[in-house]
Amino acid sequence: MSGVPDRKAVLHRALRVTIAASAGFYAYLYGLDKPVMALYALFGPVALGGLASIPGSGRQRATVILKSLPIGLLLVTLGTALAVTTWAAVLGMLVVGFCLAFAAVAGPRAAGAGPGLQLFYILACVPPYAPDTLGLRLAGLTTGLLALAACEFFLLPAPAAAPYQARMAEALAIAAGAAADPSAASPGGLRDAGRRLRLSDVPEAERPAGPGRRDRALTQAGSATRRLLEQLAHAADALAHAPGAGAGAGEACGARGAAVDNGATERAQAASDALLARVSSLCRATAAALRDDRMPPKPGPLHDAVVDFQTLRLQQATGPPDGVPPVRVLRRQSAVLGIAESARIVETAAQIGADGRRRTEPIQPQELFWYADRSTAWLWAKRLFGHMTLRSVQFQNAVRTALGLGAARLVAGSFDLPHGFWVMLAVLTLGRTTTVGQTWGTVRKVLAGNLVGAVVAGGLLIAFGKHTEAYAVMLAPGMLAAFSLGPLLGIAWAQGMFTLVVASAFAQIAPASWELAGARILDIVTGSVIGLLCGLLAWPAGARREVRRTMAALLRCCGPLVTGTADMLLAPRPGTVTPPSTLPTLHRLKLAEAAYAQYRSEPATTPAAARADWQAVLIAANHVLIGAQWLPRFDLPEVSVPPAAAAWARDAAVRVAATADRIAALATGDQQRPRTPDPPFTPPDDAPPLPALIDLETWLRSLNAQLGRIEDSLRDTDPAASADPGGQGSEGAPHA
Question: Which end of the chain is more exposed for a tag (fewer CB within 10 A), N or C?
Fold first, then answer.
């Protein structure tokens, strides 16, 4: 998310980088007369502290910097060795550029450190080829990064944000209150609490976005908590619009016409209240454990309560007709059961996240908690190979960055451009953009800033000539101004000020003239052209087209999952129908979330295209996955569904799947099928009030309503924006 930078935080960061970079530079250059060590002691803090964007508190940043030190030493060594020929350096740049950019799949911290680490190889792989200076380079880099880590830790350290567990604890406390007294709950307050758990609203350093068990479990617990809050909000809405007390005591069972016994209604409502009380107790205990950073209670008690609740529902359904509660009561039971199932997912996932250790036995349902018994290496491999596809925006960004940096190194080496480092630095700057329009806008600002900076630098070089003491005086204030004004005033200011910093540094290391400023302009123009061409040829629309493809693929995976779940529930005998696999949908959901996350970072275009509600697609897919897991889970006695009711339920599932497929075609612009009014989701009059049938009906109704809203949002866009042939679609709306 973009926003107004915190001026105090920017100034503090600039001060830390300036002190860390200046300490090693001045000590090595003027104290020990070691210009190579001075250069690397300067660029280490500048790369990871100024040009990179490592999120988190001072302690967290210092930890990332220290962990990056061995990688930085390896990259400098590799760059120094491969600088022997242009082609060796280019091939190394392709591999290093791809790997460091692709490391973004590991989470925000790796993504933030990536651009800075790129600079270590870039600086070492440009001429001159000097393997004899490797020791000096490594010593300088080590000094610079250790100084930066110390400054991040001790000098005006950035404060730590509230951890994700604290946000979950707050949300679960709100859920506990709503479950204890649904009539007093505020639907708006519950939904607001759920929105605060969206990863896009969580500070980057606190997002559980890594591939390990702990992060996966916390992400799942957060999603389940959001779902729980939404269900409680829906239940509060239903109570607010329910008929007055006593209206249901003697009413008929809706269209199904069975006489109602007051005692049956009271028993059903008492069972629902008891289960909600158990959910409230669980949420309160889990919230306390997360708040105190201790192990949540072991899963179990809620499972027994849910089984007892299901057994009661079955007894009511198979008992005498006058003992069957009204349909509205049965639907409330179904809603309460869904709330309990979401709470059970929160309970189990929070336990896994707090423990973090590999489980010796699978946790049921295994497809939902598939990661709990996997090794850390296996989970990392799954994350990496899962994004090794042209449909992954992380893979696309990594390929674009690697090709741009490789081309820049080839051009700089082939044409013997002076200070070819700046060519690759310009490409790296533009590699952070995602669309051609965004790249072109950045190019204009970069060129304008560098032109002004080069003119000023040229004037200073002419005025001061070889008086290095003047440049020594200017360097530290220049760095402080560059890293302060750049984030606050924009990239043009950042580039102009950085030009002055680089000119001041190189003028102290070796004699320089006004031609240094001209070389800077030439290199920046060259790098900008290369970056613009890469943006034009490699995925020029950024994630705009990709978000449509991935959302369409996700919807197409959801359709068979809906019909497969219905077939399993309606099977004549339990176990005769194989449960549908949720793993393909889970994989598609991760790709869609990644594409949506980048899509939200791109600038909006037309207001019409902004109405496409992609966030609703992710929510609907989560709803499908949760229903596919909890609806068929209970080993209850066999109850046959009458053929007419079973046929209606299967037809309803097919209609939902067809709607998902129709929306997928609409999203990609493959087909513009007209939308015909759907027949109402009304079961036949003789449909028995069976728990499985009520649960399936409630699930399908909810999905149908969600998909209808999604389809309306897409049809509100004009056909050209919906088809998006030129990549001009955008959205202004998981979590990522």
Answer: N
